[in-house]
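[Automated response] Your request has been received and processed.

Submitted sequence:
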Amino acid sequence: MLKKLRIRPINAAATGLLASVSMSISMAQQPVDTHEAAPVTTLNVQAREVILPVTVRDKKGQVVPTLRQDDFVLEQDGRPQIIKSFSHDSNLPFRLGLLVDTSRSQQNALPAERTATGKFIDQMLAQPADKGFLLHFDHQVELLQDFTASKPKLHHELDEMSTSTGGSNDSAGSSDPDDKSGRGGGGGHRRGGGTQLYDAIYLASNELMVKQPGRKAVIVLSDGADRGSKETLSDAVDAAEKANVSVYTVYFKGEEDRDNSGMGPGMGRGGGMGGGGYPGGGRYPGGGRMPRPGSGEQKVDGKKILEQIAHRTGGIAFEAKKKDSFDEVYAQIAEELKGQYLLTYTPDKPASKDDSDGFHKISLKAKDDKYQVVTREGYYSQD
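Generated structure:
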């Protein structure tokens, strides 16, 4: 019988090497699913080709799955591009990441989140080649289950996941560094006082998703308020773009974390939301620093933060206004993902050393303006 490896908390301050080694060991020790040897649909893409997941809705908000390649106009950096391939292939495997906010502000919503997430897992992992992972974040980011096609494994970790409790004192937790205290009813307490949303998106994209094939999406359930991340919001979104990941966000207001005065992220490198914050120049606000009392810094709107993340990466932002609406939101996300087109093109102009940051802006529109096209805003050249 194989010994189960417990994944220790992923610390954004550590190098990517540690996380990569831990995850590699985990993958090596997990049994190989023999049923995955069956042939699956694959997407062959050359090095310079760009892949775009595309969702189209009509004015009534219904997904439109019947458009053709000639129905679209594509530009990169303001220059017309030729669409090389265009398909609506539901057999391409999914790679899904589930990122759940387990800070105290989300405590009341967690039971409903568990139930809805479990149903979503059952619905989306329909083929042997479909895989998902589960990650939670509060004062730390922790990988509960690496990529797997096993629904029971994901359900097991989901059922044991709990919100952080207790104070910010280390003595409140277990002395065993491998003990996931506070999960289930195990008796220990995890430290509270943090919501490392930006770190969670960054690590999920940069460490888990970046080398994965197929259709990729991350679903984030949170109130959008970051407290304690080492990465900025801009860094998190950049990592998702570089990994070709669409981020779907589900906003649930939850309760204010009184230990942190209910405040959102502080101002990171590049300025705040009202000044040159992204979009419109500059960077997103950072996540590590709390606003000082009386400093005049305004509380950041978590809902708007989640909307920006989704918009920039080609995902959709949703809001669960009540705990019992998570099922409805997940149904909409499933509809979005299953209704996606996949478009590829080869840029007319190769990347060069003159590119200031390697980012190329994409514009994709339907010729008929009654359709709304959703895809990511651009990509980073790898040269």
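Summary generated for your ticket: The helical segments are 16-29, 110-124, 151-160, 197-209, 233-242, 302-313, 326-338. The radius of gyration is 21 Å.
If you did not submit this request, please reply to this message.
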